[in-house]
Amino acid sequence: QVQLVESGGGLVQPGGSLRLSCSASGIFFSGYRMGWYRQAPGKQRELVATSTTGGGTNYADSVKGRFTMSRDNAKNTVDLQMGSLKPEDTAVYYCKATPLSWGPTYWGQGTQVTVSS
Description:
Blueprint: E1 3-7, E2 10-12, E3 18-25, E4 32-39, E5 46-51, E6 57-59, E7 67-72, E8 77-82, E9 91-99, E10 106-107, E11 111-115
Parallel strand pairs: 2-11
Antiparallel strand pairs: 1-3, 3-8, 4-5, 4-9, 5-6, 7-8, 9-10, 9-11
């Protein structure tokens, strides 16, 4: 059974930091591109960052310079270090696994991040 489990969300003040983690099981982790997405109330889900199997990363313009994504193929985990958080970063953050070749895409259940004073 495939599972993606996010953790690390919570309430943080503007300017603060949070670190999200996603732990994957049931998949050959190195065969998947991993991504972080977010969905704010009333908005569509949007890409935050992606990581290739080799660790290369891409970021949405809105988070460049503030967020850093990393992956550990040995531990089957991806992290998202978020800094200089803004109220507009408030959303449910989801982990996504996309196969490099063929097969289904998997999503985690999401973790809430709230940036508020």
